Amino acid sequence: MKTKLARMAAALMLPVAALAAGAAHAQEFPNQTIKFVVPYAAGGLPDVMARVVGQKVSDATGQPVVIDNKPGASGIIAADFVAKANPDGYTVFVGDIAQYALNPALRQNLPYETLRDFKPVTHAVRAPLFLMVNTSTGIKTVADFVAYAKAHPGTNYGSSGNASVHQLGMEQFAQMAGIKLTHIPYKGVAQAVPALVAGDVPVMFVSPTSAGAAGFIASGKISVLAVASPQRWPGLPAVPTMAEAGYPVEAVSNIGFLVPAKTPPAVVARLHKELVAALKSADIEARMPTLGAVVIASTPDEFTARIRSEQTVYAKLVKDTGVKVD
Asked: Each residue of 92-151: pLDDT tens digit?
């Protein structure tokens, strides 16, 4: 009888021991280097944002935060790496709309499924794109461009690459305006913006902070027609939204932090606390607009809802526009 009672007591203690171990793990986290995996080369908004936030997290926790740039395949390489990483909170994905919404809409055989393989931690920043033209075209408004495109069917437009948010925004605009455009994809904004300045393409959606675009705007080589977001951009308050111009296009890059799906809730909670504190710090909130972004710190549930919503929107947009991955 005593042996049986001992076994029962031991069995009852197992869940308690597991809870205690989990609590101890959460209290210990972090106690080693945290890795932020960025799906792009150094220098772009996701990379810069990851670095400034990472430094804040490092200062707060006393642990190093390193940036691991893994560009290629529309972020699939980086996303797959994090999805398969040890779910201990030390490998964090700095993902954007391309990985969590566009890839699922465009590709049938992804090695990951966003909300199955990842746990969203927090939405970090939102960066709208702007409709810009080469000033030599003489185009001054969205209406001018629509008239130009109707007079020149098949007008070229540039983008940062095939199946990018830049391309999808333009295709949605073309569909709304009833115009025919020809897509010229480049290998990133570093090539696309100079092509716009040179007049190789007359128009594109792009951020004013990308590849020196702000300097070309200031020098008069590029004109900004509209911003593809629901609200006007504080840095360019005179520029109307696409909706105000009659075409409610939204071309916005949302970037956030995600971890492998099986990361313990207590660890996710600690990461969330540190990431949101960093994002909401006065210097980062002030710096993000200079990079063409605004801070959008959220709860994990809010970021999850955002991902679901954007997956629905882009699945429909891909279907409606017929955009395909070459």
From this structure: 999 999 899 999 998 888 999 999 999 999 999 998 999 999 999 999 999 999 999 999
Which pLDDT belongs to residue 319? 86
3-state SS assignment for residue 207: coil
Per-residue pLDDT, 234: 83
Cα gap 140→117, rounded to integer Å:
46
* DSSP string across 35-103: EEEESS-TTSHHHHHHHHHHHHHHHHHSS-EEEEE---GGGHHHHHHHHTS-SSSSEEEEEEHIIIIIH
Sheet containing strand 91-96, strands side by side:
65-69, 34-38, 91-96, 252-260, 118-128, 294-295
Helix (H, G, I), strand (E, B) or coil at 137: helix
- DSSP bridge pairs for 65: 34
Query: Which helix (H) or strand (E) is 156 found in, with range?
Result: strand 155-159
- What is the rounded CA–CA span in Å between residue 186 and residue 205? 13
Give pLDDT, residue 84.
97
Sequence-distant (≥ 6) Cβ neighbours of residue 45 within 8 angstroms? 125, 127, 207, 209, 253, 255, 291, 292, 293
Q: Which two tokens stand for residue 237?
A: 């308050």
pLDDT at position 194 over 50: yes
| pTM, rounded to two decimals | 0.81
Contacts of 140 (CB under 8 A, 6+ apart): 223, 225
Q: How far apart are the two ends of the chain, measured CA to CA in Å?
A: 71
Distance, in Å, from the CA atom of 206 to the CA atom of 27, rounded to the nearest integer, reads 43
Cα distances from 187 to residues 79, 191, 249, 300, 318, in angstroms, run: 20, 6, 24, 33, 21
Amino acid 51: pLDDT: 95
Q: Helix, strand, or coil here: 292?
A: coil
